Amino acid sequence: MNTAATKASLLSRVGGLQQIPTIPAVLAPLLRYLQQPVEQLDVQKVTALIAQDKSLAVQCLQMANSPLFGRWKKIDSLRGAILGLGFHRVSDIAMSCGLLNMMPKECDGLDPVALWEHSLGCALVCRHFARLISYPDPSKAYLAGLLHDIGIIVNLWVFPKEFHAAYDLARAQGIPLHEAEQSVLGFTHCDSGRLLAEKWELSPDLREVVSHHHMLQESLEHAGLVALVELSDLLCRVSGLNYGYIENREVNLLEQKGFAVLSQQCQGLKDFDWARLTFELDSYMDEVQSLVRTIYRT
Ligand SMILES: [Fe+2]
Ligand SMILES: [Fe+2]
Known about the structure:
Layout: H1 3-16, H2 27-34, H3 43-52, H4 54-64, H5 78-85, H6 87-101, H7 112-132, H8 138-147, H9 150-158, H10 160-173, H11 177-185, H12 189-199, H13 204-212, H14 223-237, H15 257-265, H16 274-297
């Protein structure tokens, strides 16, 4: 298959199609706010924005009351959530709910909720991992983890039939999804994700994460963040926070290129306690799955 030609045809199909999800109205300003200095944040305005979307506001409260987001006492209003959890935490929650609302409601094969579970799990692992190794921007790490697989949402909407064939192949052979996409579609969710990231005008570092989290060697300016997401994504995929199937392989995180790249930036990685992170990941898994049940399946 001619890869360049396939990518060009992908570009034209995505460019010409309307199915590609747009950012829900509330999320565009949130994304902009998240990239501003803290002193410029208008908390009241954002609270009012989230409150406009009733179902988003309800989901945000459900998430705010999950132990995953540091609940300290029962939260029953958005204002209470911001006071109790802080503006950035509530923004993270609103972004997470917004991403969930962009998933197709039903599709064969891949359960869209499992994809959201993976994205949310990866966001939490990225943030936790970032803190443990003193990565300078744990909030950015959360957002990067949450959005890294947005290309899968594109594939689900724009190429459902072909994507399901790729997903079936990945599941049957226990191989990484991007490898199956490459052989069935001729491109991966990194390629389609890049197009959506551009359309959404994500910041350059997030675009790099979306485009290169399976090809770290192609990452140029923001390799540290991409490496952090690559490692967290792998951790999730080989545990229960994957897309509904287990990859049939052994992974040694210390041998990943991401480990070497991140070690250069974060001294904390040298003596890192992987066993502790894996242990903590198990409890994340339970919490994420119970949160997903609360928000989506009830
Ligand atoms: Fe991915
Ligand atoms: Fe992923």
